[in-house]
Amino acid sequence: MAAPPLAPPSTGLDLLTRLRLEVHALPQISDSEKAGFLKLVGRYISGDVEQIEWEKIQPPTDEVVIPYADLPPLSNDPAETKNLLDKLAVLKLNGGLGTTMGCTGPKSVIEVRNGQTFLDLIVKQIESLNSKFDANVPLILMNSFNTHEDTIEIVRKYEQSKLDLIIFNQSQYPRLVAEDMMPWPSKGQTDKSGWYPPGHGDVFASLLNSGKLDELIAKGKEYVFIANADNLGATADLKILNYLVNNQNEYCMEVTPKTLADVKGGTLISYEGRLQLLEIAQVPNEHVNEFKSIDKFKIFNTNNLWANLKAIKRLVEADALHMEIIPNPKDVDGVKVLQLETAAGAAIRFFDHAIGVNVPRSRFLPVKATSDLLLVQSDLYTVEDGFVIRNPARIKGENPSVDLSSEFKKVGDFLKRFRSIPSILHLDGLKISGDVWFGSDIILKGKVVIEGEKGEKLVIPDNVTIENKLVTAGPTYTDIQS
Hints:
disordered N terminus, five-stranded mixed β-sheet, alpha/beta, eight-stranded mixed β-sheet, globular, single chain, 12 helices
């Protein structure tokens, strides 16, 4: 586990003093952003890194990471449900761009199903809840400077909705030039490339600094549900909220059983009497394989988080949220820069009565790539009132594995290669490589591998069923042992 590069003792104070002068001269950011940035860099330079003692790590018990099935049932009284919902606000992390999937603008406006975007589905979910129970759950979008202007324009389509839609920006911090740890904008790089959003751990401070936290508390809201905008499974769950309210838990992290695809994901541990998030970057090298084991570390963080609003206010005002710093070095336009980030899940150890809930895998349905998009656009799922629901006809518990080659990486290229999305209800695994195109009404079952030859177009015809086959030029079908 690499420690952060530290300034030499004789120059450390000079470095911070110089940094402070440069940052205070930046007109683009607020005083609260400047203060937050300087605290973060100060912690990093001073070597404020908690060293995990591996021998002290304990697996959490069911008393602190509660199986979802053990949560008490909800009351059948609609008035009680309304009362519960009126304590809730839903916050979606909306700072990410869709560039990795070949899209411009916020990732939340990528169309995921029947012309509906992530944001369309989220709005429908909360509208449905509010309408059904005559409640007023607000939707909050935390943007970054990368997504804010586009989001302002996009949400105009919801102006006729009765939904209370709240928008604010997370902090904007200057990238540091790695060579001398000075702000890049101070050296003239004042466009967007000179800045960065400091990770979703910034959500707590930005809620307070924006004034939105106090507004929510004044409206009688008690809890905020925080989730990534691209996680289609992250819906407001009343059983979890009911448990938190009745047991006065200040924080809850949703975890789910780890599979071999999740071995690098952060996990919850008991450490010196408190729940703590353990990320792979904190693990000593000699224990990395142990960390990846699904036998010892059986759960991972979905980044579906619940927090008490008054507890957030107390901790931010006391400057008590010292989450682990994630150094993120980058090469931008030939300049080596450093950005320091934090993760919201790492805040769990600072809240009182924090718990985890071991939720079904259905609450973790992120769309990070077009392979995920294929799953959610297929007959594996349906959409009702904005909720993406898994088809009960799927017998196997896990989704099929999907591996698509670079020809499918961008959303536009992906969509034009399918006249219609194949049926994959009984698919175990799909691997596609090359210039492959699909007709309509195709059914894929078992294990399917499709390999196009370099420089040649391979078209899968309409109305075929492919089960346990290797498909090559022609197309030619060869049996694969199931």
